[in-house]
Specification:
Distance between the termini: 5 Å
CATH class of the largest domain: Alpha Beta
CATH topology of the largest domain: UDP-n-acetylglucosamine1-carboxyvinyl-transferase, Chain
Radius of gyration: 21 Å
Number of domains: 2
Number of helices: 13
Strand order of the largest sheet: 21-22-1-23
CATH architecture of the largest domain: Alpha-beta prism
Length: 420
């Protein structure tokens, strides 16, 4: 499928935010730790990555029902029996690595061949399997070709060179059923990690320090099924806040926690947007004047999120002046540059630094989404561009943003989802 977008229409109206992809994916995997009962997850968005995780859980023996309209997921993991994770599924989603500790705990071993996700440069899995080694597991293989075995893990001190979110979540899961206490140093502190820790706590885990750089996990003998409502997706609302800004629109968002995205708020206000909040209700009004340029450096939470960089780059393409964007998380977060330039932008890059010279306007064209966030940056650019923009490979975009065309149509955008 592909999107066809005719730009130049200000977005106006009200938007409800989806559940957080980066919170629900580890929850689906962690639900396999419960040997009996049914786990119920609410506010589960209909995303491609969610569907892959559901199928992967089914492939190892879980029984799952997903009620899309109600956004409720029911998981019965009492019959887990397959330790070999299906490579036709693991290669579709980076989140497949989150199934390693759950299957390992349930069956004593797990086999993994191939990992998917966005191509953002080298994204090794050594944080994961080295962490399992520190907890007493036997690991054979390298990178994404792994066989991991353990009778029961034992708590230990684990240190992450980089505060990786998925590594932190994997080690939290592994430590929950390990003997004694595990300390995770230099842990990721994203709100999604906190929400995941809250879910594990409902399952019976004992976790302290989630949201800080040091997490303590006291091992327990078993976890139970639980019910949990997934937090709102700050990366989803951030993209639509940028859409309101670049389209010179006026959009009210329901269910937003601005404390989770303070730096994006500051940057959008710096560019000229007006942002008002009343509790979890946030209104974003784009300026009718030219956007102002800005400088951005990505860094781990609570710094400016790398996931927001492609979107903010789209906004700077029509800013009045020159912007400088530096990426300090991933090797290749600039996969959107060629596509934006094809739409009329003036972007030059050198290493991890991009210089964006604002142009008068973007023009429609045909681009292909190379990954999730880059694809969404094309949607933002298309909302502003003169003429019609066609975006192919929207599977990537829909890995992280649900019903993009429908939600934008409800805000007045001229967008359609058609066969490619």
């Amino acid at each position: 499928m592909k999107y066809k977008i005719s730009g130049g229409k200000p977005l106006e109206g009200t938007l409800f935010i989806q559940g957080a992809k980066n919170a629900v994916l580890p929850m689906i995997a962690a639900s396999l730790l419960a040997e009996k009962g049914q786990t119920v997850l609410r506010n589960v968005p209909p995303l491609n990555d969610v569907y892959v995780s559901i199928e992967l859980a089914k492939s190892v023996g879980a029984k799952i029902k997903y009620f899309k309209n109600e956004k409720i997921l029911v998981i019965d993991a009492s019959s887990i029996k397959n330790f070999n994770l299906d490579s036709s599924l693991t290669t579709k989603s980076r989140a497949s690595i989150l199934f390693l500790p759950a299957v390992l705990h349930r069956l004593g071993k797990v086999e993994f061949h191939g990992v998917g996700g966005c191509c953002l440069g080298v994204r090794g899995l050594d944080f994961h399997h080295n962490g399992f080694k520190r907890l007493g597991a036997r690991v054979e293989g390298y990178h994404d070709q792994l066989l991991i075995e353990a009778n029961r893990l034992k708590g230990n001190l684990v240190y992450l060179d980089i505060p990786s979110q998925t590594s932190t979540e994997n080690l939290m899961m592994a430590a929950c059923l390990a003997e004694e206490t595990t300390i995770i140093e230099n842990a990721a502190s994203e709100p999604e990690v906190v929400d995941f820790a809250n879910f594990l706590t409902k399952m019976g885990a004992i976790i302290h320090g989630a949201g800080t750089k040091t997490i303590f996990v006291q091992g327990v003998k078993r976890l139970k099924a639980a019910e949990h409502t997934v937090m709102a997706d700050r990366l989803d609302v951030g993209a639509f806040m940028m859409a309101a800004t670049i389209s010179k629109g006026d959009v009210t968002f329901i269910g937003v926690n601005l404390e989770h995205m303070r730096l994006l708020q500051v940057k959008l206000e710096q560019m000229g947007a007006i942002i008002e909040s009343d509790g979890k209700i946030v209104r974003v009004k784009g300026t009718k004047k030219k956007l102002k340029p800005l400088n951005v450096v990505t860094c781990p939470y609570p710094g400016f999120s790398t996931d927001f960089l492609p979107g903010i780059m789209a906004l700077t393409t029509i800013a009045e002046g020159t912007s400088y964007l530096r990426e300090d998380i991933f090797e290749d977060r600039f996969s959107q540059v060629d596509g934006l330039n094809l739409l009329g932008a003036a972007i030059t890059k050198k290493g991890n630094l991009a210089q964006v010279d604002g142009v008068k306007e973007l023009r429609g064209g045909c681009v292909t989404a190379p990954d999730l966030r880059a694809g969404m940056s094309f949607v933002l650019a298309a909302l502003s561009a003169q003429g019609i923009t066609t975006i192919k490979n929207i599977y990537q975009i829909e890995r992280g943003h649900s019903d993009v065309d429908t939600r934008l149509q409800n805000l007045g955008a001229d967008i359609s989802r058609i066969n490619d």
